[in-house]
Design brief:
The structure holds 2 protein chains of 2 kinds.
Chain A (H helix, E strand, L loop, with lengths): L36 H9 L2 H18 L2 E5 L4 E5 L2 E9 H25 L4 H4 L5 H5 L21 E9 L2 E8 L6 H14 L1 H6 L8 H11 L10 E4 L8 H11 L2 E3 L4 E4 L2 E6 L2 E4 L2 E4 L22 H6 L4 E3 L10 H4 L2 H9 L11 E2 L3 H9 L4 E5 L8 E3 L5 H13 L4 E5 L5 E6 L2 E10 L1 E4 L3 E3 L4 E5 L13 E9 L14
Parallel strand pairs in A: 3-22, 6-7, 6-11, 11-12
Antiparallel strand pairs in A: 1-2, 4-5, 4-19, 8-9, 9-10, 13-16, 14-15, 14-16, 17-18, 18-21, 19-20, 21-22
Chain B lengths: L2 H33 L2 H15 L13 H8 L2 H9 L8 H13 L7 H14 L2 H9 L1 H22 L4 H25 L13 H6 L3 H7 L6 H10 L7 H15 L11 H15 L7 H24 L11
């Protein structure tokens, strides 16, 4: 059904408005939501061809700026642009403020949790979370026990995936290791500003451009106290990593060195980088490589990406690594189920952002429930990310479900299940038409001395019709997310826009 | 600056300079098809492949005499295509741009968005088949326009990038490559000086070295082979002469490491750069010393590259501890 508001608009002719999903632009009966009204009016008046041209320009500018990922083919390597949709997702400012408070609370609790499990482990002794979920987790780093982390900020850069349903926002997963995507958020915003400057200005969108400055401040505040002007570097796996563009982008924005493992060496528990003028000491490492590859002496021996001896320098307090090693235990899919209890335990507060009810298949009733409702649930493998190892029950064939059930029975510890969420949908440009597609949102949270959240995030889109998987490796794209402050109800604009 | 990144910038720049030289040689060569006899054209191809040290398609690289006969027969466009678009040929224009871009990609934090954009855009357009069509119709114009993209890159570099270490290494790479390729080009024209029978068009050499106009300004459009040769070696003010490159290299090293060129004992790289400059400023300009001069330039330039690497890029860590 075409939304009533859009019946006369050619671009919306194929818009299938389905009130069973929350639509980011239209309410249940198909009128434009008030905070989207102005944007909608403009888009409605715009010929679809103009929108397509905007889309093409944005895509071309991404290609020229090298915002690409590489596909290795037989004949030649192809560089593809991360698909971008030019219609922003618009979120109301007051709703966002609640989300931001919830994100801050959540990360504060998770950092306390990490400190606890790498020290006394009160939460385990108090029986709030089973010991084997923590100590048996493959991301638990025994080497981190007793290490003091500046400001208790094990996770200083976090990217949390949020979804929205009719019931409001919910956390899909926390990314506490090396979250990526922030450069796409910034590049999307930049491209959109250039493509629709007037509409953007009129819309009173909150700024995200200060992210890099905040990130740099966060990293500086982690430096050892005796260092007045810390030398900060970003450690990348190198040019073949799919997020390399982002690493270079952030290093440039912050004016810090982008180093690879081979640029660093450890001598006498100090870390140095090789410059053209000799060795120079490094104080803070914003690392964008996984725990396993940080230091071949301490972690994976076969790693060629890391720096031998780095972890010893870290333990000796001569260098800070952000995020700290061993944070992966807290964004584990099984630990996810305990986060509301973790928040309650450390902060004595209820979780502000609603959790998604999660069933652990490691528990006998949980497994039975999951198996009995396989056609209704989403089942996820505990150690996986990127949308792999996942069954979306309602979308799977009988054979796929049967196959998955066997795997589940063989190793129930490895799985959790959640109800299939009616993920919200937002208007996207598909060819020459606007159609609804499922979206999520990944805001970025910085935490050290204080918490900083830029208002916005990477909005990921499942570009395939009906698909719920937004990961770029599986046909996802992205769009800009606008946090807008809505005019007062009587129609006078709020005084937030200068 | 990180030593690895200096390495990337240096090579980014060398590959781009090499591509510039290749484009110019190809431009001259496709022009020669309309202006010169087929024997001259064939000799031109031989010089081109030898100067760039690239093996021609199907031929044994090391330039047997029969090769010239095969160049007489080969379609000029086949050879130009091979030097322009053949990805399997590491010396082709597309390959050189690809290498330059790959190095730039690893030094992204040191170069500006505009530099990267210019390099990337041109590279992507060179791989676009529509451009191939343009090349096929108007090859000389195609080379002119591609050359203009390099000038644009240099303009963007000089006007947007801080003139600090990154800029110095980019410039160093450019003139190191220039002095080496130009020396090879000159050496391949040298035998023709003594050949009474040759009908070689020496303006081609000036055009190959982007020095036709500077030469005409300095002398007259009257082309004298020996004057052309000494001009391209010793003239101090034209950016494509050996002397000019040597001055730039020496000054660049002085900026990269001021102490190394001033304090006793002088760094080896600085000593060699000084010798190179002295040879081209004060060295013999006699005809019988020409071959020796070119050989010495070649030797010093190679040694200089090695010393730069030993001192600033791949130095042993224990010699460089610590310093903040």
């Amino acid at each position: 059904m075409i939304p009533v508001a859009a019946t006369a608009a050619p671009a919306f002719r194929q818009y299938d408005h389905d009130p069973s999903f929350y639509d980011e632009m239209f309410d249940r009966d198909g009128s434009a939501r008030r905070h989207c009204a102005d944007f909608f009016e403009t888009i409605r008046e715009t010929p679809p061809d103009d929108l397509r041209q905007i889309q093409e320009r944005v895509t071309r500018s991404f290609l020229h700026e090298g915002i690409t990922f590489t596909v290795y083919g037989d004949e030649q390597t192809i560089e593809r642009v991360f698909p971008i949709d030019c219609l922003p997702r618009i979120v109301r400012g007051d709703e966002w403020d609640d989300v931001a408070r919830g994100l801050e609370q959540r990360l504060r609790a998770l950092n306390l949790f990490l400190h606890d499990i790498y020290h006394q482990g009160h939460i385990i002794r108090d029986g709030v979370i089973p010991a084997e979920l923590v100590y048996g987790n493959k991301h638990y780093r025994i080497e981190m026990r007793g290490v003091e982390v500046p400001h208790g900020a094990y996770v200083s850069v976090c990217g949390t995936d949020l979804v929205r349903t009719h019931d409001g926002f919910a956390v899909l997963e926390d990314n506490l290791r090396v979250p990526s995507g922030v450069s796409y958020m910034l590049a999307c915003r930049d491209a959109i500003k250039r493509s629709m400057p007037r509409l953007f200005r009129r819309s009173r969108v909150r700024d995200v451009e200060h992210y890099s400055r905040r990130l740099l401040e966060t990293l500086r505040s982690l430096a050892p106290p005796q260092v007045s002007d810390p030398s900060i570097v970003l450690l990348t796996p190198g040019v073949y990593n799919s997020a390399y563009y982002e690493h270079a982008f952030l290093a440039r924005q912050m004016g810090i060195e982008l180093v690879e493992g081979r640029d660093l060496l450890v001598h006498n528990r100090r870390v140095y980088m090789r410059t053209t003028a000799g060795l120079r000491q490094v104080d803070v490492i914003y690392r964008r490589i996984d725990d396993d590859f940080i230091d071949p002496v301490t972690f994976r021996e076969d790693s060629v990406l890391g720096v031998p001896g780095l972890f010893h320098a870290y333990r000796a307090g001569r260098v800070v690594i952000a995020n700290a090693p061993g944070t992966g235990v807290a964004d584990d899919k099984a630990v996810y189920a305990y986060v509301p209890r973790i928040i309650k335990y450390y902060l004595g507060e209820e979780s502000i952002i609603k959790p998604i009810p999660t069933t652990l298949c490691r528990e006998r009733e949980g497994l039975a429930y999951t198996l009995a409702n396989l056609d209704k649930l989403v089942v996820k493998m505990v150690g996986e990310s990127g949308g792999y190892g996942m069954l979306v029950g309602p979308h799977a064939s009988g054979a796929e479900r049967k196959e998955f059930a066997a795997a589940l029975r063989a190793n129930p510890d490895n799985y959790i299940s959640q109800p299939t969420l009616a993920l919200s949908r937002a208007p996207c440009l598909v060819g020459a038409h606007i159609e609804p597609r499922h979206v999520d949102l990944r805001p970025f949270i910085l935490q050290a001395e204080r918490t900083e959240i830029v208002p916005g995030g990477l909005c990921r889109v499942a570009l395939k019709k009906g698909s719920l998987v937004v990961n770029s490796s599986q046909g996802g794209g992205s769009k800009d997310a606008w946090i807008v402050d809505v005019p007062e109800a009587d129609g006078t604009p709020a005084e937030t826009a200068a | 600056m990180l030593a690895r990144v200096a390495d990337n910038l240096y090579w980014m720049s060398r590959y781009l300079e090499r591509s510039d030289q290749t484009i110019r040689l190809l431009g001259v060569q496709v022009r020669s098809v309309t202006d010169n006899t087929s024997a001259q054209v064939a000799a031109g191809w031989t010089r081109l492949f030898r100067s760039l040290k690239v093996a021609p398609p199907g031929g044994d690289p090391l330039y047997s005499e029969q090769l010239e006969d095969s160049f007489l027969l080969a379609d000029a466009y086949t050879l130009a295509d091979f030097m322009s678009f053949e990805r399997d040929n590491p010396g082709s224009m597309v390959s050189l741009w690809g290498m330059s871009r790959e190095n730039a990609r690893q030094a992204r934090q040191e170069i500006t968005q505009e530099m990267w954009g210019q390099l990337n855009r041109t590279y992507l357009s060179l791989r676009d088949t529509r451009l191939h069509f343009f090349w096929n119709k108007e090859p000389e114009n195609f080379y002119k326009e591609t050359s203009a993209q390099i000038y644009l890159f240099r303009g963007v570099t000089d006007n947007g990038l801080r003139h600090g270490l990154a800029w110095d290494f980019i410039r160093l790479g450019r003139f190191m490559e220039r002095i080496q390729v130009t020396t090879e080009i000159l050496d391949n024209y040298r035998p023709a000086l003594d050949d009474e029978d040759t009908d070689l068009d020496w303006s081609l050499l000036l055009r190959s070295c982007a020095s036709f106009e500077p030469y005409c300004r300095h002398y007259t459009p009257e082309i004298d082979p020996w004057k052309v040769m000494t001009f391209l070696i010793h003239e101090p003010e034209s950016p494509h002469t050996l002397r000019f490159a040597a001055e730039e290299i020496r000054n660049g090293l002085g900026r990269i490491d001021p102490a190394g060129g001033a304090r006793h004992p002088l760094q080896a790289a600085h000593r060699i750069a000084g010798q190179l400059r002295a040879l081209l400023v004060y060295g013999s300009q006699d005809r019988e010393d020409l071959a020796g001069t070119l050989a010495e330039v070649r030797r010093l330039a190679r040694g200089l590259h090695d010393e730069i690497y030993r001192r600033y890029i791949f130095y042993p860590a224990d010699q460089a501890l610590p310093g903040r």
